Amino acid sequence: MKIVVITPAPPRTSSGNRTTALRLASILRAVGHDVQVAQTWDGHPRDAMIALHAWRSAESIAAFRARLPQRPLIVVLSGTDVYEFVHTHPETTLGSMMLADVLVGLHDRIADDLPLALRPKVRVIRQAAARGAPSTPAADDRFHVLVVAHLRDVKDPLRTAYAVRDLEVDSRIHVRHLGAALTPQWRDRARAETATNPRYEWLRSVPLDEVRTHLARSRVLVVSSRAEGGANVISEAVMAGTPVIATRISGNVGLLGPAYPGLFPVGDTRALRSMLRRAEADAAFLDDLDRHRRELMPTFERSVETHAWRSLLEEVESL
After folding, report:
1. Do the Cβ atoms of 128 and 101 come closer than 8 Å?
2. Arithmetic mean of pLDDT, 167-192
C-alpha cells in the first residue's frame, strides 16, 4: 500500500509526534509498504492515511475522508486528544475520531476514556523499544534517578526535583532531567532549580541514543505526568532494564498494569519522595519493581508492535 503518515510536528524536531511518525514509517516500510511522512496531506491520492493526533491533524483527516471516502483512514490518538482536546475542542477532536475507520491507542485503558460510540473503533498497539544492553550503573555512589520529559504543564516536569529537596543528608539520590523547555518560563524554572537544588540537574534535550545511555546508568525512571497517551519512555525503560516510578493515571496504568507497585498520585510530592527513598533504601522493593518490569518486557517487543500494525493494515484493506 501507498500510505501517508501525517504528523503535526515539523521535520528535524525532537517532539514525541515526530519520533512516533518516523518509528511508524520504519515499521510500515519493513513490512513492504510505501510510506510518506508529512505535516499535512498534499492531496495526492494514497491508499491509506495514518494521522497522528485527532485535533492537530484534523484538516488533513477531513480532506482525505472527503476526497477518498472509501480508502482506509486510521487516527493514532495522542494523550492531549483524549485527555485535553476532547474537552476544550470537542467538535474538531471528536469529529476526526468519528471520521476514522480505526482509532489506535497506545495503552490498554484508552478505550475506557472515550465516548461509548467510539470504543468499537479502538485497537491498542503499544510502542516498542529495542532491548538494551545490561544496565551499567554510574561509577559514582549516587542513586541516580532519571526524568525524561519536555518541560510543559502536562508533564509536571519538576515534581521529582521538588520531591528530592531537603532529603536527609544520608540519602544518595540524585536526579537528572532530560527534556527541552518549551517556554522561557519553564527554562528559567529549570535553571533556577538546578542552581538551588544540589540533588537536581537539568541536562536539556538529548538524542535518543543518549537517553538510552542515561537509562542504562539510572536506578529508576520517574514519569510524573498529569496525563499521557502512552509514554514511549516507559517502553524504553522497561527494555533498558530500568524500573519505573509513575503517576497513577490511565496512560501509565494502561502500560504498567493496575497492580504495579511503583505508582503514586498525581502531584503528590510527599508520596513520590517516600517512594524514591524506599527504592533507594529497600532492596526488596527495588527488586519487586524490577520483577514487574521483566514481566512486561514481552509486551514491548518490536516484533509484537510490527505484527500488530501488519494485522491492522490487513484488517482495514478488507473494509
Report:
1. no
2. 97
